[in-house]
Write a structure and sequence with these properties.
The protein has about 200 residues and is α+β, with helices and mostly antiparallel strands. The chain has two domains: about 5-45; about 55-195, GTP cyclohydrolase I, C-terminal domain/NADPH-dependent 7-cyano-7-deazaguanine reductase, N-terminal domain (GTP Cyclohydrolase I, domain 2, 2-Layer Sandwich), CATH 3.30.1130.10. It has helices at about 5-20, 35-45, 55, 65, 105-120, 125-140, 155, 175-180, 180-195; strands at about 60, 70-80, 90-100, 105, 145-155, 165-175.
């Protein structure tokens, strides 16, 4: 978690306590609220993590040393973010795939990438989806990369339209997944098979 200077953290907590006070909630006296300003600041800071891509993806492995040029697909990756509009969470699952060109990465690195981009900063789902695909494309230089995010946004479930249970799906497609329909079709067949 990003660790801001102590005085910055304290100021953030004071601001949160003031907002609560303006709502008629006393964070200095009500037992259930005593730690709420600190907890809320901790929550926000969890979604303001600097992305260190080399730590997340590592250096990878030379494809020739693995002997594999097969499509790599991961599904059901836990995904979380907070929207930049309301600072409320969205929670869902990601599926991604790539066709190696010269480099492959350890399987855990793909999950770490999804988790790291989701907690890098408040954003919108579309931008996070694109960012994951772009990072795969830039750092692995695959023949193609594809990312699908599916999430429920609490900003829709608990406020505004008040419609829980609605999922938003976004996709970002690069290289052969964009240009070769059979590659895209194979990816979607694999993720459908995993959902059964």
């Amino acid at each position: 978690m990003r660790k801001p200077r102590k005085e910055v953290r304290e100021r953030m907590q004071e601001h949160m306590a003031q907002i609560m006070d303006d709502l008629g909630l006393d964070a200095t006296k009500e037992p259930g609220l005593l730690e709420t300003p600190r907890r809320f600041v901790d929550y926000l800071l969890e979604f303001a993590q600097p992305l260190r891509i080399k730590e997340v993806l590592g250096n990878g492995f030379d494809v020739d040393s693995t002997g594999s040029h097969s499509m790599v697909v991961q599904t059901n990756i836990p995904f979380r973010m907070i929207c930049e509009h309301h600072l409320l969470p969205a929670i869902g699952r990601a599926a991604l795939g790539y066709v190696p060109n010269a480099t492959v990465v350890g399987l855990s690195k793909l999950t770490r990438l999804v988790q790291a981009v989701g907690t890098e900063r408040p954003s919108i789902q579309e931008a996070i989806c694109d960012r994951i695909a772009n990072l795969l494309d830039e750092h692995l230089e695959p023949k193609g990369a594809i990312v699908v995010l599916r999430a429920e946004h609490t900003c829709m479930a608990c406020r505004g339209v008040n419609a829980p249970g609605i999922f938003t799906t976004t996709s970002a497609v690069r290289g052969v997944f964009r240009d070769v329909p059979q590659a895209r079709s194979e990816f979607f067949s694999l993720i459908r098979a995993d959902q059964r």
